């Protein structure tokens, strides 16, 4: 995927952790994200708290940096402009807020520290075979079986519904069963 942008912001530097580039990116696209969030929230909620709009806007940028800038890495300039891409993400985040009355937000001060702690701590518990589960399935399984989270705790930690956690767990268990059944048949 192509990740080139206009000359005002270097997306590669943002992804690689350059603070000046990231600040330039935020300054450049904050109005776009804010407008997308505001439009959705105002169309769905009668009395809008301006602080909610700012919080949801901040959450959009948190989503952009989560999982090692996963959403920014997926941006493809040949498919749409950065403004369009960010507007879609902003609207999706705002709709989540409107639908569920909450959003997956954490204090920015804790965000970096939590990533370092998770990266340094090995997961105790079962080892899952490599290449069998998707990254999302692996994350859910580790939360449920290695960190001993219940479904609601895992849902809160990932900012998704409990039913989604149950579905992902079911899919992961099905894949693991198929994997181990194939091993038994092969031997």
What is the CATH third-level topology name of the largest domain?
Rna Polymerase Sigma Factor, Chain: A
Task: Tell me the distance between the termini.
Answer: 41 Å
CATH homologous superfamily descriptor of the largest domain:
RNA polymerase sigma factor, region 2, helix turn helix motif
> Helix share of residues?
over 70%
Description of the structure:
By secondary structure, the protein is mostly helical. It has two domains: 94 residues, RNA polymerase sigma factor, region 2, helix turn helix motif (Rna Polymerase Sigma Factor, Chain: A, Orthogonal Bundle); 65 residues, Winged helix-like DNA-binding domain superfamily/Winged helix DNA-binding domain (Arc Repressor Mutant, subunit A), CATH 1.10.10.10. It has eight helices and no strands. Helix 6 packs across helix 8. It is globular. Belongs to the sigma-70 factor family. ECF subfamily. This is RNA polymerase, sigma-24 subunit, ECF subfamily.
């Amino acid at each position: 995927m192509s990740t080139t942008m206009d000359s005002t912001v270097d997306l590669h530097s943002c992804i690689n952790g350059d603070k000046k580039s990231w600040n330039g990116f935020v300054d450049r696209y904050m109005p776009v994200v804010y407008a997308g969030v505001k439009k959705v929230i105002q169309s769905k909620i009668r009395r809008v708290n301006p602080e909610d709009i700012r919080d949801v806007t901040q959450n959009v940028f948190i989503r952009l940096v989560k999982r090692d800038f996963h959403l920014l890495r997926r941006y493809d300039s040949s498919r749409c402009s950065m403004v369009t891409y960010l507007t879609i993400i902003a609207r999706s985040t705002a709709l989540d807020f409107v639908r569920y009355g909450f959003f997956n937000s954490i204090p920015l001060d804790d965000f970096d520290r939590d990533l370092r702690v998770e990266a340094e701590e090995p997961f105790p518990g079962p080892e899952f075979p490599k290449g069998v589960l998707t990254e999302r399935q692996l994350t859910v399984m580790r939360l449920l079986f290695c960190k001993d989270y219940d479904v609601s705790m895992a849902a809160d930690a990932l900012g998704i519904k409990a039913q989604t956690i149950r579905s992902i767990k079911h899919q992961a268990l099905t894949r693991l069963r198929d994997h181990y059944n194939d091993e038994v048949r092969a031997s």
